[in-house]
Amino acid sequence: MTTSTTAGPRAAEPLLSLRDVTKTFPGGRRRTGAGAPVRAVDGVSLDVAAGETLGLVGESGCGKSTTGRMIVRLLEPTTGSITYDGRDIGHLGRRELKPLRRELQMVFQDPHSSLNPRQTVARIIADPLLVQGSPAAEARRRAAELMELVGLIPEHLDRFPHEFSGGQAQRIGIARSLATRPRLIVADEPVSALDVSVQAQIVNLMERLQRELGLAYLFIAHDLSVVKRVCDRVAVMYLGRIVEVGAKERVYAAPAHPYTRALLSAVPLPDPAAERARERIVLPGDPPSPATPPPGCTFHPRCPKAQEICRSEAPLLRVATAGEAREVACHFPETDPPPNGT
Ligand code: SF4
User: Fold this and answer.
1) pLDDT value at residue 12
2) Residue 162 in this model has a pLDDT that exceeds 70
């Protein structure tokens, strides 16, 4: 499916633009190639401006990580365009990608499993620089600088990842991502493997680095409380498609897509009285398989508002209310805030 543009306050020219991006994987039985192909990402369009944070949220398996991996070109899109700084990077070859990797970096969910246990921290952080051809001494100097920048002790450069806690290991992952002075970081669930108290520290660190270095983030998460705190805009994905995107304040105060409304109804409210009064929207069943998506609006089998047209006609992502910095893919978008808050 093709979605239209994205919404929200942005710079005139986005740093990153995805247009109608799809990613299809071969069928389930990989060895034989049999089974229906899986369209993990199905026509995603989104923009990220320089220096902003776009949150990408949705249930596990909705295609948000695949989208992130295509942006940093760990995966090649099947169709559609990915434009970074005015250049289509979606189908660049390995040699052309090399200089680009300086600018686009990724932070992964599980810090310990994403760091090579046999390498020292110095090597781990310096590796992107060595790959780009920096002399070893210069790369080590930069690694020490980065240790300090992310709140670690430079004298610990020769330690191994297992000698650090989960939060410290994530700081190492962030330091590594910063080695080549990128402009955009795709952070894929960067705090979900950490304790709650450590999560706050890593979020603080990411916010500080953004202010100091002017970074843009695509912040992928399923925890909407964290996203609310760190993001300027939010995009909600369901079964490979963006179903709602817009300014954070608007989406959180008055979610327009029934799926966004259900997700937000599960986020605990700080006020206990409001929390008791609030009605949770429990969706029936699990998301369908992307190998066999339902016709029409793919959310219709679980949607409390589904009507006949929803079963046959896929809604386009469009501005639901004139002049509003938010787009919704729904034939019957909500226009009022939820009765008891989100
Ligand atoms: Fe629900 Fe229909 Fe809107 Fe889809 S288009 S979210 S089924 S109301």
Assistant:
1) 59
2) yes
Map out the domains of the chain as residue ranges: 1-26+36-103+188-342, 110-181
Beta-carbon contacts of residue 155 (< 8 Å; ≥ 6 apart): none
- Indicate the angle between helix axes 136-149 and 121-131, nearest 10 degrees: 120
φ, ψ for residue 230 (rounded to 5)?
A: -95, -20
What does the DSSP assignment read for 28-82?
Answer: SBTTTTBS--EEEEEEEEEEE-TT-EEEEE-STTSSHHHHHHHHTTSS--SEEEE
C-beta of 164 in contact with ligand 1 (< 6 A):
no
Which residue's alpha carbon is nearest to atom 3 within ligand 1? 330
Q: Looking at the predicted structure, is the pLDDT value of residue 245 above 50?
A: yes
Ligand 1 pocket mutation, candidates 316, 331, 334, criterion most atoms within 8 A of CB: 331
Q: Which two tokens stand for residue 38?
A: 């899986």
Lowest mean pLDDT among 28-37, 155-164, 206-215, 291-300: 28-37
Q: Which of 237, 307, 328 for a ligand 1 pocket mutation test, highest count of atoms within 8 Å of Cβ?
A: 307
Distance 306 CA to ligand 1 centre (A): 5
Contact assessment for residue 220 and residue 41, using Cβ atoms and an 8 Å cutoff: no
Q: What is the CATH number of domain 1-26+36-103+188-342?
A: 3.40.50.300
